[in-house]
Amino acid sequence: MTADLSTTAGSLVAQAPATTAPGTGDAAGSLLAADVPSVVQSIDWLAIAPPTLTALAALAVLVADLFLPAHRKRLLGYGTLTALAAALAFLIPLRSGDRSTFCVTTGAQACSYTADHFTVVIQALVLGGAFLTVLLSLDDTRKLPAGEYWFLLLASASGAALLPASRDLATLVVALEVASLPAFALVGIKRGDRRSSEAALKFFLSSVVATAVMLLGVSFVYATTGTLHLTEIAARLDDVAPVLDTLAKTGVALTLVGFAFKTAAAPFHFWVPDTYVGAPLPIAAYLSVVGKAVGFSGLILVTVIAFPSYADVWGPALAVLAALTMTVGNVAALRQNAARARSAVRLLAWSSVAQAGYLLVPIAAAAYSSDEQIGSTVAYALMYAVVNLGAFAVAALVARTHPGNRLSDYRGLYATRPLAALALGFFLLCLAGLPPGIIGLFAKVTVFSAAVDAGLGWLAVVMAVNVVIALYYYLQWTAILFRAPDGAPETTGPDTGSPASAAPRRFRVPTPLTTAIVLTSAAGILLSGVPQTVLRFAAVSLF
């Protein structure tokens, strides 16, 4: 070891000038240092600001909770809201794209963190979804431990914001777990509630199994390629030795399992209905949007960037998953709608499973054409995030007088809350893809076009059939909103023991909840008026 160091030092000294004039020692040292590859790199703090600020805010909330008296815990919620707004503001200087940090300093140019257009769009979706979740939660956490709730929400949002910027498998896995582990606790945070505890346990166990399978796949990919960076994996998978080809294909397939679970793709969807019903309503909304964004962004990164050479493996698999997911979700939602005493949240849960099927279509299509198809998934995800959070916001409003939140509780909502009924009707029409929900219609058309352009005609037919099925239960729910209230008592639903037709009680809607409904309604109307704002993502490559 000493001899090696001496040889290295001697070679470096030999590269320096033989003579040095007085006063030029610093210059010689600089020249000597320039010949040695630097292992110290600067960090682009602006690029990593959104997830970093969110994580720091989570720690600040946890510490502040120790010192704030009970009557001032409400300030933690507003602090959370401010932190998320600041994180969103940091996305503005990043919108020009392509900033990278934590890069390899020698050999290939590979980075672990990249803030490109795809990253910025998904981070805006994630942080915006978390922001609206806070608005839904501000007046709905009175019986919950406030400090823990806001800390867990911010911690999960920081992992969700990190994931779309991750460009190596290790960072992807860490980000996925940082986003997921606090979510388990949030689902079960209603202490003493049996359904909440059961939902958290189902969510946790199924997620752990999916993560274990994914880690096995990641280990196979690493054994095949010898690297974890996505761009390097793509280059080395182009020329895999025949003896390792089966190992590589197995690793690709298993790696997709963890992300398929997060997207609630069938058959990895079974945790969704019970989890959404058992969790606090704002957390159900958070999982339906931010949880899906995490899964789909990870799925896009590993398929399009890391595994393009094995498109013949993941392309058909995702196409089948898309068809199966949208069919299972819509059929289950149809059955849910037929029982009017059933939970509206459970219907939204099955609807979110069906929507995941539509979101999978452009990713599968990218295996057969070009990665520009991914833009259709991003466009659809942005539409879905706005209108689904809006639907959950109205559901939170109804839950204040009808804790069971059954479909029958929405009967005659227009008579008591006309603006809320109109907003919910608009959101449901957007999800169905009918006017005046123009943005929903256009988003579905772009997804349908992606399947047709890729030559997946059979998948386009399956999607068309499922859109028709979904029309029935979305329109049925919309019609209930405008029917005259029924004075006769109805049957008791399985999700609650209270009668279905309890007399409506007037109350003042909390300002944060009103703000959430107004923001989502305004965004939906704006996007329906100028759909090209979102749909332009479907026409360009985001990488």
UniProtKB/TrEMBL annotation:
<feature type="transmembrane region" description="Helical">
    <location>
        <begin position="455"/>
        <end position="475"/>
    </location>
</feature>
<dbReference type="Pfam" id="PF00361">
    <property type="entry name" value="Proton_antipo_M"/>
</dbReference>
<keyword id="KW-0472">Membrane</keyword>
<comment type="similarity">
    <text>Belongs to the complex I subunit 2 family.</text>
</comment>
<protein>
    <recommendedName>
        <fullName>NADH-quinone oxidoreductase subunit N</fullName>
        <ecNumber>7.1.1.-</ecNumber>
    </recommendedName>
</protein>
<dbReference type="GO" id="GO:0008137">
    <property type="term" value="F:NADH dehydrogenase (ubiquinone) activity"/>
</dbReference>
<dbReference type="GO" id="GO:0005886">
    <property type="term" value="C:plasma membrane"/>
</dbReference>
<feature type="domain" description="NADH:quinone oxidoreductase/Mrp antiporter transmembrane">
    <location>
        <begin position="166"/>
        <end position="469"/>
    </location>
</feature>
<feature type="transmembrane region" description="Helical">
    <location>
        <begin position="43"/>
        <end position="68"/>
    </location>
</feature>
<keyword id="KW-1003">Cell membrane</keyword>
<feature type="transmembrane region" description="Helical">
    <location>
        <begin position="347"/>
        <end position="368"/>
    </location>
</feature>
<feature type="transmembrane region" description="Helical">
    <location>
        <begin position="284"/>
        <end position="307"/>
    </location>
</feature>
<feature type="transmembrane region" description="Helical">
    <location>
        <begin position="75"/>
        <end position="92"/>
    </location>
</feature>
<dbReference type="GO" id="GO:0042773">
    <property type="term" value="P:ATP synthesis coupled electron transport"/>
</dbReference>
<feature type="transmembrane region" description="Helical">
    <location>
        <begin position="149"/>
        <end position="166"/>
    </location>
</feature>
<comment type="subunit">
    <text>NDH-1 is composed of 14 different subunits. Subunits NuoA, H, J, K, L, M, N constitute the membrane sector of the complex.</text>
</comment>
<keyword id="KW-0812">Transmembrane</keyword>
<feature type="transmembrane region" description="Helical">
    <location>
        <begin position="172"/>
        <end position="189"/>
    </location>
</feature>
<feature type="transmembrane region" description="Helical">
    <location>
        <begin position="419"/>
        <end position="443"/>
    </location>
</feature>
<feature type="transmembrane region" description="Helical">
    <location>
        <begin position="118"/>
        <end position="137"/>
    </location>
</feature>
<dbReference type="InterPro" id="IPR001750">
    <property type="entry name" value="ND/Mrp_TM"/>
</dbReference>
<feature type="transmembrane region" description="Helical">
    <location>
        <begin position="313"/>
        <end position="335"/>
    </location>
</feature>
<dbReference type="GO" id="GO:0050136">
    <property type="term" value="F:NADH dehydrogenase (quinone) (non-electrogenic) activity"/>
</dbReference>
<keyword id="KW-0874">Quinone</keyword>
<feature type="transmembrane region" description="Helical">
    <location>
        <begin position="380"/>
        <end position="399"/>
    </location>
</feature>
<dbReference type="GO" id="GO:0012505">
    <property type="term" value="C:endomembrane system"/>
</dbReference>
<keyword id="KW-1133">Transmembrane helix</keyword>
<feature type="transmembrane region" description="Helical">
    <location>
        <begin position="201"/>
        <end position="222"/>
    </location>
</feature>
<feature type="transmembrane region" description="Helical">
    <location>
        <begin position="252"/>
        <end position="272"/>
    </location>
</feature>
<dbReference type="InterPro" id="IPR010096">
    <property type="entry name" value="NADH-Q_OxRdtase_suN/2"/>
</dbReference>
<comment type="function">
    <text>NDH-1 shuttles electrons from NADH, via FMN and iron-sulfur (Fe-S) centers, to quinones in the respiratory chain. The immediate electron acceptor for the enzyme in this species is believed to be a menaquinone. Couples the redox reaction to proton translocation (for every two electrons transferred, four hydrogen ions are translocated across the cytoplasmic membrane), and thus conserves the redox energy in a proton gradient.</text>
</comment>
<keyword id="KW-0520">NAD</keyword>
<dbReference type="GO" id="GO:0048038">
    <property type="term" value="F:quinone binding"/>
</dbReference>
<keyword id="KW-1278">Translocase</keyword>
<keyword id="KW-0813">Transport</keyword>
